[in-house]
Amino acid sequence: MARPDLNLLVTLDVLLEEGSVTRAGKRLALSPSAMSRALARLRRATGDPLLVRSGRGLVPTPRALELRDRVRGLVRDAGEVLRPAERLDLATLARSFSVRCSDGFVERFGPGLVATVGAEAPSVRLHFLQKTRPDPGALRDAVDLETGVADELPPPDVRSRPLFTDRFVGVVREGHPLSAGKVTTARYASARHVHVSRRGLAEGLVDEALRPAGRRRDIVTVVDGFGAAVALARAADLVATVPERHTENLRHGMHCFALPFPAPEVTVSLLWHLRLDADPAHRWLRDRVADACRDPG
């Protein structure tokens, strides 16, 4: 069966409203002959004359009267579908968003983000999901947003936006030998270190930056998150080398020092799937996350 020409619905709606081929043609910017051909096509499609001559005008048939309200509703609904979304009303917006990120990100930026979202859109709910390992497919399924350091370009169906650049610093408990005196490359390298790697790797960016100095860290333990690294450094004579902004809240009460060699930097980005790129509510949330991560200084 041939697919019906849905453009004829608009033509029929105008014809039934005007009751005149000439007036309907003017509204649709069609010539009288083109309008007559459209009416002929409508008659063939519906199997009914629809409009018949009565005196000097046209009157609708019973079938036309039956269709009039239905056609008007269909045309109105189609118009609503094909126009841009209504302006976002944050006061009535009721949605839940899932944000996949590390514990450290939630502890550092979560309070400000939750407060802002709650003030602007009280019925919006944020679900923070722990990011334990890279999973490119998560955004394609149920995750709305993800934060992290992109080791390579995201796939074509994933969009990204840089949030901030972070540099690595050393952190130790008060009383640790490195909490006093100048931290040299030799002192830093010879200390006992906790290394962070979600993939369980024995070395990372810090070790690459240290290598030109001809030194290697004495890594005695490996953990999968910055929070765990800081916790171990707080409780033992270990050095945790962590991103400065990302771990600001976690390092409270500890001694922090600049690395004695060029510190590696990482750019933390926000990622989302292409299917959500044009969604007004999702765009609003992306802006709020960026605001929460903006350096106040």
Protein described:
38% of the residues lie in helices and 23% in strands. The protein has helices spanning 7-18, 21-27, 32-46, 62-81, 103-120, 138-141, 185-190, 205-210, 226-235, 280-293; strands at residues 51-54, 57-60, 96-101, 125-130, 145-149, 158-172, 192-196, 218-223, 239-243, 255-257, 265-273. Strands 3, 4, 5, 6, 7, 8, 9, 10 and 11 form a nine-stranded mixed β-sheet that branches. It has a two-stranded antiparallel ribbon with strand order 1-2. Strand 3, helix 5 (103-120) and strand 4 (125-130) form a beta-alpha-beta unit. Helix 2 (21-27) crosses helix 3 and helix 5 crosses helix 10.
Topology overview:
Blueprint (H helix, E strand, L loop, with lengths): L6 H12 L2 H7 L4 H15 L4 E4 L2 E4 L1 H20 L14 E6 L1 H18 L4 E6 L7 H4 L3 E5 L8 E15 L12 H6 L1 E5 L8 H6 L7 E6 L2 H10 L3 E5 L11 E3 L7 E9 L6 H14 L4
Parallel strand pairs: 3-4, 3-5, 7-8, 7-9
Antiparallel strand pairs: 1-2, 5-11, 6-9, 6-10, 6-11
Helix pairs in contact: 1-2, 1-3, 1-4, 2-3, 5-10
Radius of gyration: 32 Å
The residue ranges in which pLDDT falls below 50 over 5 or more consecutive positions are none
Number of strands: 11
Largest sheet: 9 strands, mixed
Strand content: 15-25%
Helix-strand topology string: HHHEEHEHEHEEHEHEHEEEH
Cα distance, first to last residue? 67 Å
The overall pLDDT average reads: 89
Structural class: alpha/beta
Using the alpha-carbon principal axes, give the shape. Answer: rod-shaped
What percentage of residues falls in helices of 4 or more residues? Answer: 25-40%
**Helical segment tally?**
10
